[in-house]
Amino acid sequence: MRGNAKIEISALQALATSRRYVREVPARADQHAVTQAVAKMVSKGDRRGAAVALLARNWGMRAQEATLQDLQRMRHEILTTGRAWILQGCKGGRQSTDRWVSSTPARLEAIEFALQTLPIGSRCLLDKTETVKVFYQRELNRCRRVLRSFGVVSYRELRAAFAADVYQSITGVLPMSGVHVPRDLDKKARAEVARVLGHGRIQVSSGYVGGY
Fold first, then answer.
1. Segment 98-105 long-range contacts (CB within 8 Å, at least 24 positions apart)
2. Which of 8, 79, 92, 208 sits a CA distance of 20 to 30 A from 63?
3. pTM of the full structure
């Protein structure tokens, strides 16, 4: 506000600690729990909320990314290249051509389900007359409660479970399982987790797969 740094305070100096988050427990969002939660959402008529859950769990999208993603583009990319890029709704508005995810039957199924829930005339889960905030208030917040009732604490937990899958695909073991992973292989897996989740720094992976 002053336009200079004559008056400033450091969080580290004031609190004697800095912001640091390293996951200490494995992600609690196995596919069976997610399937049950999605079925519950569908039964309540919250199909778009169910689509967000499937996209978060199978593609590692944030809730906003799943809400705003051009799903028709993704499907076309999958059918032509076998992979798809996550471009819309990214944190900070950043887009990276590096953030592609290979398709699998489960991932394609999640896209197909989401496409069936699109509002008329829209290429994403959001209606053309609707804002992200309104969608969250009307449907997504209600779906968060459904997730919690099946032991999944949040949509972010779905991203963490996706990250664990990515880590396991490279190392052969789930993160925080107590099994030793060679440092070079662990670093490679963390770099891949950071890439597919849309983070620019490998250190952020610790928030999803724990510390080394």
1. 98/195, 99/195, 99/196, 99/198, 101/59, 101/60, 101/196, 103/78, 104/58
2. 79
3. 0.87
